Amino acid sequence: MENRYNPDVLNCIANLSNDEVFTPPSLANQLLDLLPSGLFESPETKFLDPFTKSGVFLREIVKRLDKGLESVIPDRQKRIDHIMHNQVYGIACTELTSLLARRSVYCSKTASGKHSVTKFETPEGNILYKPLSHTWEGGKCIYCGASQAVYDRGSQAEQYAYQFIHTDKPAKIFGNMKFDVIIGNPPYQLQVNESGKGLGAIPLYNKFVEQAIRLSPRYLSMIIPSRWFAGGVGLDDFRKMMLSCGKISNIVDFTDSNDCFPGVDINGGVCYFLWQYEYDGPCDFCNITNSKLSNSIRKLNEFDIFIRRNESVSIIHKVLSHKGKTLSHPGGCSSQTPYGFLSTFVGKSEKEEGDCEIVSSKGWMYVAKKDICKGLDSVDSYKVMISKLSCEHAGNPNKDGQYRVLSRMEILSPNQICTQSYLVICPSKNSGEVENTYTYLRTKFVRFLILQTLVGMNISISNFQFVPWVDFSHPWTDEMLYEKYKLTQEEIEFIESMIRPME
After folding, report:
1. Residues pairing with 29 in the sheet
2. Which 3-state string (H, E, C) describes 101-113?
3. How far apart are CA 106 and CA 430, in angstroms?
4. 219-225/181-184 β-pairing
């Protein structure tokens, strides 16, 4: 009897990545609806899902082509054979997903098997899977940045060395074939350190988008996390490219990922987009928040980051028209780790002469002043301290659709400092000015402006880029700020509807 390799399905399931989110058929069809219908009526159109998991995109494409080519290839079996062999291609993420995808598309885990709806000479058909190893250099993969300590493991374990991005020549995968449409839902991130040791994961979806663009398809559509709008580790160049290319004609953005993937919480929400090779113009942007749709034709690179709430743009225009400093300028919001102490720092429990008090998420401790290596100019000042984590850690509002944004806030006295868990705002020798800064940060107006730049749980200096640096010699209220920036009643109501009071 022929000895055939039969993978241990339980091993495959045990190693299935949590960073690969399966796509519901209804969502796959929303992306396909963005494409011109004529693509499904041509026997020449070629489609590629370069990171197929369940095969849902390929299956739904086949269904549309089957209907669209009825008049061109009347015989059903000949039509199916043509579509499967010449128009629909996939690259599986893992061995398990290659079997799932072939089962979805060919109705058989082997394209050459007797149950396949069309016969190929190879078991793979046009849905490929090639197990690869990472290419290590300096402890990291040169293609995806994976940690050698985490992913250099036995051959039985999944490596997550995705074929589409682990090559300098992606066109060679299918013999330099030219694809009209590249579409799908790529893996989102990859762990780069062992749990609890520094940065846990890095974004991966941007590498799939960039690799797809190198193939110059006519159309490119993907579902990816929305964090690229304003944040994300290592995404600055990707964000600049996406916002300035002029080729993105449509974006549909879900503030809450549950509205897109029921039961899946993705910090900052998710979006899908349509990129067109021959397009150059503004973007039809649709934001969905609390099941409410807001559409606007937008120029994506109007700001350095992308503002996802269409209703917010006019407010930001009014703030920026004053052309003053913002709290992202030096002396406003501090950088991360304002005094050089990580969140894991444990200070002394007993105070010695000359020590400073230091607060962490674990409480108050003491540290010798000589051990402070950053922020020395503000140690002897009053300053506002805020948590670096937003109040809404998952990025979602409360049941009323409102945000608090800022979490823990305190005024630190001279010789009081903090760890990496916090940021410091506007240090001053004048305690009255710091008290006014504190009340200013608590206004709905300021917290609204911070919220426009947040697409995750972490707050940093960049999130204050729209917050004006006002005169702190007197206190501020929302009413004073609304009047100063000449907000309309509609704009005021929008802010009030989004931001809840701070108790």
Report:
1. none
2. HHHHHHCCCCCCC
3. 73
4. parallel
